[in-house]
Design goal:
This protein has 393 residues and is α/β, with parallel strands linked by helices. It is 37% helix and 20% strand. Strands 1, 2, 3, 4, 5, 6, 7, 8 and 9 form a 9-stranded mixed sheet that branches. A 6-stranded mixed sheet has the order 14-13-10-11-12-15, sandwiched between helices.
């Protein structure tokens, strides 16, 4: 027997004539995530992937980061013969012998040339297991299920399964730029955008020089954590935004300060996105979560965008967002203290029903186009290598 990992698709399996494109992207992302695994071999087998190389635990850990996979099985690989299958089945189920346990065989004949149907495989292998190990048969609620998948070149057997990330492979639906703060919402929005097939890079707006660099450190840590789901290659731009915020305050933004800042952010992000080939912006907005995210305010901010603005979390509440942040590993970073640039120069009175015309009056008091160009030119770029060693940390 040779250990391996069997990977099964999620909704990707439902794709029609374009499925090959989704599979190609999935295999590319998986290979990038496993790039430093010794003797790596990734093979396609009738709608699944079989991966060997390195250690099985290493393959399992990394594969669980790859978007587009629904189920992950630690498995063993044997030749497609009844003798080999029966021996492997007994060895895999031996730990359950003598414990008054029940089992069931769940066979699948992927290669129709195998000289027995699925039901025949289940009966024959199950009978051997029952005689050799004394386990009881329960086809409804067994203590352990043995999966057997017969292919032309090998048979795969497994007793365990782990959930994958699901969704679609990152990159099949285009490229986006995510506005990344240090909070819970925007990292989850970036992840959810990737889960729908987008490749996303990030832009972070810091209150520098009027705040500490703490938010930059958090943004870098968050981008690094999210980079694991992409397999490397993420880019993060950091824009020092404090001076521009002061200019808006000097121009008399008052109660509209936060919304004027957000409009300037999406202008900068739009222009930067166009330069890097992004087709959309992603934000962590959740309708009604804070005063700046009322419907009227969201519309007023979006009016300044030059790229489509996507909001994956629009209908999520805070508890749902925090739970997802915990699951994907960004919550602990988001909990760290920092200085949020959005509150810099902000009025204690919040505007909940902003008018675009009022915001445009404030913007006309500034030289907006040169300011946008200046902010982009001064942005600092941080790049993450296309190599997974950082993802294992």
């Amino acid at each position: 027997m040779r250990s391996c990992v069997l990977l099964k698709y999620g909704e990707l399996a439902l794709k029609g004539r374009n499925r090959w494109r989704f599979e190609d992207t999935l295999v590319r992302n998986l290979t990038r995530t496993l790039a430093d695994v010794p003797d790596l071999d990734v093979r396609r087998r009738n709608g699944v992937l079989v991966v060997t190389g390195g250690t099985q635990s290493q393959l399992l850990e990394r594969a669980q980061l790859v978007l587009g996979l629904a189920l992950i099985h630690p498995a063993v690989m044997v030749e497609p013969s009844f003798d080999a299958i029966e021996r492997a089945a007994v060895e895999l189920l031996r730990p359950y012998a003598g414990q008054d346990r029940t089992f069931a065989i769940r066979p699948r004949r992927r290669w129709k040339g195998f000289p027995a149907r699925s039901q025949e495989i289940a009966v024959r292998v199950g009978d051997v297991v029952r005689r050799e190990l004394g386990l009881g048969v329960d086809l409804t609620t067994p203590d352990v299920e043995l999966g057997i998948e017969v292919d032309k070149r090998e048979t795969l057997l497994y007793t365990e399964k782990y959930p994958g990330q699901g969704g679609l492979p990152a990159g099949v639906n285009g490229h986006a730029l995510t506005l990344l703060s240090g909070g819970f919402d925007s990292p989850v929005a970036g992840y959810r955008a990737m889960r729908r097939g987008l490749t996303t890079d990030y832009v972070h707006f810091s209150g520098m020089p009027f705040t500490s660099p703490a938010s930059i450190y958090k943004a870098y840590a968050l981008a690094s954590k999210l980079d694991r789901y992409r397999g490397g290659g993420t880019k993060l731009w950091v824009v020092s935004f404090g001076t521009a915020q002061r200019s808006l305050a000097t121009a008399g933004a008052g109660r509209l300060q936060v919304l004027a800042q957000r409009r300037l952010m999406v202008r900068v992000a739009s222009r930067l996105g166009q330069q890097i080939g992004a087709q959309a912006l992603v934000t962590g907005d959740s309708l009604g979560q804070v005063s700046s995210q009322t419907l009227q305010n969201l519309v007023a901010v979006e009016a300044a965008a030059e790229l489509p603005l996507l909001r994956p979390l629009l209908g999520w509440d805070k508890a749902e967002i925090v739970a997802e942040a915990e699951r994907i590993g960004t919550a602990e970073i988001s909990k760290l203290p920092d200085e949020d640039c959005c509150t810099l120069f902000a009025s204690p009175l919040a505007e909940t029903r902003a008018q675009v015309t009022e915001l445009e009056k404030i913007e006309r008091r500034l030289e907006l186009e040169p300011l946008v160009d200046e902010l982009i030119a001064a942005a600092q770029l941080h790049e993450f290598a296309v190599h997974p060693e950082h993802a294992a940390a």
